[in-house]
Amino acid sequence: MNLQSIINSLVSDTVNTSLPLFKPELVLCVTIVVMLLFRVLPLLDKVPPFLLALVGSVVALWSSLPLEGLSTWANLERQELFTGMLVYDSVTAYMKVFLMSFAVLFVVLSRLTGIADREDGQDYYSLVFGSIVGMCLMASSNHMLTLFLGIEMASVPSYVLAGIVKGRQRSSEAALKYCIYGAGTAGVMLYGISLLSGVLGSAHIPTMAQRLVEMDIPASLAAGEGVEPLIVLVLGGLMMGVGLAFKLSAIPFHFWCPDVFEGASAEVDGFLSVASKAAALALLLRVGLGLGYSPEAELAAVENRTEVTAIASAAEQATPPTIRLVADGVADELGEEAPGEISSPLTPIRKFFVTVVALIAIVTCTFGNLAAYGQTNIKRMLAYSTIAHAGFMMMPVAAAVSLAGHSTAEASDAVSAMLFYVAIYLFMNLGAFAIIAFLRNSMQSEEISDYAGLINKAPWLAVCMTVILFSLVGLPPLAGFWPKLRVLQALLAAGGPLLIAVLVTAALNTAISLVYYLRVAKTICIDSEPDTSRPVAIGFFPWAYVLVITLPVLIFGLLPNGIAAWAKQAADNLF
Amino acid sequence: MLQLPLAHLLNEPIGVAHFMVVGAVMFVCGALCMATKRNALGVLMGIELVLNGANINFIAFGSKYLRNDANTLGLDGQLIALFVIVLAAAEAAVALAIVLNFYNNHDSVDVDRAKQLQG
């Protein structure tokens, strides 16, 4: 093969396969350039940036839809774009539609709350779109380079967004904290990636999984030899986990979250709590399934199984009892607890991943809910609520990776629970932060105590807020109930002592969260107005926007099957 | 005779391990710098050290001269390092702008002054 033919095949692969599937990101990039150019050209600088941003995000949403309609997700082939840098499959498509819909809703919200004015609207929308492009890269990354670039592309504009309100001490402090924590954890993550890809000799995630299979970790663990590379792998994996935990605001890397949420404006909080968390969850799923599951290895393990059992029974008769005991102990350690579990070369990786994610999820969920209890600032309370929900949404990822070895159908159910949760969470949290932003514009306050008697001043807004709060708890018949139920089902299907402990924690946490969400609902609906209360005036468009966001919470509570079916189709094709 | 850990590296020809030691030292210096410096600019310098420590690893793993088996990262290692250099520059630009904004509001770049929001 000469240079000419290499270049030809590269060009045809890029132009014919990769770029069409990369269209939504390209549209957003073009929108950013157009917005920044229009600002410097005469006459064109009169075009409001909101219009450009709205058109750009709507076109991006339209181009992110699969060609033959939403229901064809199940038939999407897994494709590697840009010579294996990105992967396009049904989960990528789902996440892109999700992120682009969020972009449209978010652009409208920013216009209505007036945070992006004519002066710096271009900057604001460019930062938002740049961050969303990074999130798309995160959700579709297939290579350690795109993974890291995606995380950084999503984070760096977010640092600026946290401090976009000029001249406020709190805002600048939030941006500084976010930036320093974020850059520090990204550095640790990069070092972890360098260890992982150095030991495995590749940065392409499927190739890394293949190398892990070749290393045959169960055998080297059993023999007790060649564990030095394993120590490096564990170290690298944990360091990579630091970066992921920061994006998910999981314990112990959650410190930034309440501070940033309190200091940044409510719109930006909505952005961070919905889009950024969703992309981080998709990335966690990619890493977990990418390194811990390889279809070929599982098939080979099933084929080997008959041979292994034959050899084992022969060995059992031949070996003296003491050695047999040791061998049995090793076999137990390697994970024979789940019935039907087939020991594949990747089982130790899965066990490691599931243990780490499940433990972090338990702590994150519990801590978030307990800390939310004492908050007086509504944004700070919702920040802890976001931490708790992030813990909740990590649980199905652990379940999916643990199930991937022996039951792909149940594993895809677990993935669909996560995707479904993310979609419902968009409406709940964006709605909550939209209401907070509109109330801030009208009352200049974000303290929970100032919301007392809101039901008299702005009845519809108060009703919407109450609906959203009840849905965040997960009470039926509101939308928040169904994804929680799915998560619990997935954990039950996964079984095993650890995941059952996670299940119990999740159920208990739902009860704990009831207290602080309902406290806010009580303040809004039952408490009497303070004498110093200021009037609340909400215009028609903000009111309509809140209604448009809140109605799905009611509708999907009664008819959850539409979104659930999409999520299921998207997840089914992953395995 | 006292055997120091890693002392055998001194008798060997230069290989990946030597570069990894340099990378690890840079990483630890950077992490210490991030943890102990109270000046925001010092913290940013620590972050640069951490990123460049990782970069040294990537380049060593990618070099075919240091590691003669099929498992090198190859060009990937060097490309990742190039991307990280660009990214570190972009991140430094944003971080410095944010620090400047903090200075304008607080008349200081001491991270301990950032305590209005209590986490």
From TrEMBL, chain A:
Keywords: Cell membrane, Membrane, NAD, Oxidoreductase, Quinone, Translocase, Transmembrane, Transmembrane helix, Transport, Ubiquinone
Transmembrane segments: 20-38, 50-73, 93-112, 147-166, 178-206, 226-246, 352-375, 381-405, 417-439, 459-479, 491-518, 538-559
GO terms assigned for molecular function: NADH dehydrogenase (quinone) (non-electrogenic) activity; NADH dehydrogenase (ubiquinone) activity; quinone binding
Catalytic reactions of this protein: a quinone + NADH + 5 H(+)(in) = a quinol + NAD(+) + 4 H(+)(out)
Highest taxon above the source species: Bacteria
Entry's Gene Ontology cellular component terms: endomembrane system; plasma membrane
Compartments it resides in: Cell membrane; Endomembrane system; Membrane
InterPro entries: NADH-Q_OxRdtase_suN/2 (IPR010096), ND/Mrp_TM (IPR001750)
Residue stretches making up the NADH:quinone oxidoreductase/Mrp antiporter transmembrane domain: 141-296, 349-507
Predominant place of localization: membrane
Membrane topology reported for the UniProt record: Multi-pass membrane protein
Protein's GO biological process: ATP synthesis coupled electron transport
Top-tier EC class: translocase
EC number assigned by the record: 7.1.1.-
PANTHER family named among the record's database cross-references: NADH DEHYDROGENASE
Its job: NDH-1 shuttles electrons from NADH, via FMN and iron-sulfur (Fe-S) centers, to quinones in the respiratory chain. The immediate electron acceptor for the enzyme in this species is believed to be ubiquinone. Couples the redox reaction to proton translocation (for every two electrons transferred, four hydrogen ions are translocated across the cytoplasmic membrane), and thus conserves the redox energy in a proton gradient.
Subunit structure, interactors included: NDH-1 is composed of 14 different subunits. Subunits NuoA, H, J, K, L, M, N constitute the membrane sector of the complex.
Record's protein name: NADH-quinone oxidoreductase subunit N
Source organism (scientific name): Adhaeretor mobilis
Gene designation per UniProt: nuoN
TrEMBL record, chain B:
Catalysed reactions listed for this entry: a quinone + NADH + 5 H(+)(in) = a quinol + NAD(+) + 4 H(+)(out)
Enzyme class: translocase
Molecular function (Gene Ontology), one example: NADH dehydrogenase (quinone) (non-electrogenic) activity
Entry coiled-coil feature ranges: none
GO CC field: NADH dehydrogenase complex; plasma membrane
Membrane topology, from the record: Multi-pass membrane protein
Transmembrane segments annotated in the record for this chain: 14-33, 40-60, 80-103
BP-aspect Gene Ontology terms: ATP synthesis coupled electron transport
Entry keyword set: Cell membrane, Membrane, NAD, Oxidoreductase, Quinone, Translocase, Transmembrane, Transmembrane helix, Transport, Ubiquinone
Annotated Pfam families: Oxidored_q2 (PF00420)
The keyword NAD is annotated on this UniProt entry: yes
Main location: membrane
InterPro entries: NADH_UbQ_OxRdtase_chain4L/K, NUOK/Mnh_C1-like
EC number(s) recorded for this UniProt protein: 7.1.1.-
Subcellular location as annotated: Cell membrane; Membrane
Record's subunit section: NDH-1 is composed of 14 different subunits. Subunits NuoA, H, J, K, L, M, N constitute the membrane sector of the complex.
Functional summary from the UniProt entry: NDH-1 shuttles electrons from NADH, via FMN and iron-sulfur (Fe-S) centers, to quinones in the respiratory chain. The immediate electron acceptor for the enzyme in this species is believed to be ubiquinone. Couples the redox reaction to proton translocation (for every two electrons transferred, four hydrogen ions are translocated across the cytoplasmic membrane), and thus conserves the redox energy in a proton gradient.
Family: Belongs to the complex I subunit 4L family.
UniProt name for this protein: NADH-quinone oxidoreductase subunit K
Species: Adhaeretor mobilis
Gene this chain is encoded by: nuoK
